Amino acid sequence: MNKKDKRIDSYIAKSAPFAKPILNHLRGLIHKADPDVKETTKWGFPHFVDEGIVCSMASFKEHCTFIFWKAALLPDSKNIFKRSERAAMGQLGRLEKLSDLPPDNILIKYLKEAVQFNKANVKVQRKANSALTKELKIPDYFISELKKNKESLKNFENLSYSHKKEYVEWVTEAKTEETRNKRIATSVEWLSEGKVRNWKYVK
Length: 203
Known about the structure:
Structural class: alpha+beta
Distance between the termini: 27 Å
CATH architecture of the largest domain: Alpha-Beta Complex
Radius of gyration: 18 Å
Mean pLDDT: 87
Helix content: 40-55%
Strand order of the largest sheet: 1-2-3-4
Number of domains: 2
Oligomer: single chain
Largest sheet: 4 strands, antiparallel
């Protein structure tokens, strides 16, 4: 059974020249680590699934990112995680060339561990996430508009904390009511299509 997704073929083909070897290499390592892994796309970029999301990757104008979805559970015994980087960069930091990646055998080891957490149905502790959710104040006027479009509201609720924050900050930082209303309308439209706030920069 072919577990590869043609949408990811297209995603890589449309990525910048520097990104293609990085994405292809990561893709190959993921399948080598877990022959049962399946490919899909969520929020416009590649995800790899085996009894839950194992990892994801994305390319931007000048760098790529790689994210372990249960990174909090991984012991990082080889110290490959860039903990000083912003969360949006992923655990491996900015990937601009193949040499930025950890050695293949180490990355495969981490991938196998990540898959086992899914197979064992180990959950990430949600205390930290709950705290983040409380800190993110979503204006009533924004929620009110989202509720008028069920698809937009559903997609917003399914976003990660950081992606929700991007939308909320964009709306609340508008300097005039007219600008704010335009941004709200645009947000509702983009969310109805399943887009993150900065979807234009995700190739």
